[in-house]
UniProtKB/TrEMBL annotation:
Organism: Ambispora gerdemannii
Lineage: Eukaryota, Fungi, Fungi incertae sedis, Mucoromycota, Glomeromycotina
Record-given protein name: 7712_t:CDS:1
One of the Pfam families matching this protein, by short name: DUF4748
Transmembrane stretches, start-end: 6-25
Entry coiled-coil feature ranges: none
Amino acid sequence: MNNPGSMMIGWIALIAAGGGAYYLAKKEIDSRRRAQELARIRPTEKLEWWQKVQQYDQATANQTSSSSSSSGSNNRNTPP
């Protein structure tokens, strides 16, 4: 079972399957990115991780401030 020929065939099959899966996944991801760019959903500028965190924090702060101001008596930011 574990002679060098069968091990070589197994490794070649594993590498070929992995390479094929990588190729197909990369092709799908690239096509999805192109579609998002054409629909102007995907931002074109590349951001650092800390810039993405800042944008997320600002977006969540805006959502909580707008929901807390519209909720009236259910304001979570004020003590009871």
